[in-house]
Design goal:
Shape: globular
Organism: Rhizobium leucaenae
Number of helices: 5
InterPro entries: RbsD-like_sf, RbsD/FucU_mutarotase, RbsD_FucU
Helix content: 25-40%
CATH architecture: 3-Layer(aba) Sandwich
CATH class: Alpha Beta
Radius of gyration: 14 Å
Number of domains: 1
EC number: 5.1.3.29
Number of strands: 6
Order of helices and strands: HEHEHEHEHEE
Structural class: alpha/beta
Strand order of the largest sheet: 2-5-1-6-3-4
Largest sheet: 6 strands, mixed
GO molecular function: D-ribose pyranase activity; fucose binding; L-fucose mutarotase activity
CATH topology: RbsD-like fold
Keywords: Isomerase
Amino acid sequence: MLKGISPLLNADVLHALKSMGHGDMLAIVDTNFPADAIARQTRLGHLLRIDNVSAAEAVAAVLSLMPLDTFITDAAGRMEVVGAPDEVPQVQQEVQAAIDRAEGKHWPLTPVERFAFYERAKAAYCVIQTGERRFYGCFTLTKGVIPPETE
C-alpha cells in the first residue's frame, strides 16, 4: 500500500495512468463488456483490471489521481442504454456522483451510442475492466492536465 493512493489502483493501472498524457482517454467497463478483445486494440494493447469493485468505486479511485480534460466537452462519457438513450441507470447515476465529487462540481456524462462506445474504447489508451455486474457500467474518461504550482 502507498500513502494517499487508493489500494484499488494496482501497479499496472498506476503505470498506465502515469504513462497517459493530456488528451489520452481510458475506458472503465463492466464485466459484460468485451474488454479483452477491445483492449487488444488500444494503445496499451492489453486489458487492465480492478476486480471486485463497482464502476463508481473504480472511477473514484482513478479520478483521485487523474484530472479530467477541461479543453473538451466530452471528457467523461457513458454508454447509452440501447433503445432508451435518455435513460440513466443507477450505475451511471453513481458514477456521475463520483465524477462530481472528484471534480468538485457537476461534470455531465456525455451519452455515447453502444457501437460508437466500442469504437471509442478501441481508440483509448487502455481499458480497465471492473467487477461491475449491472448493465451499462461502461464509461470513458479523458485525462487533463495538472497546472504548475503558483509561487
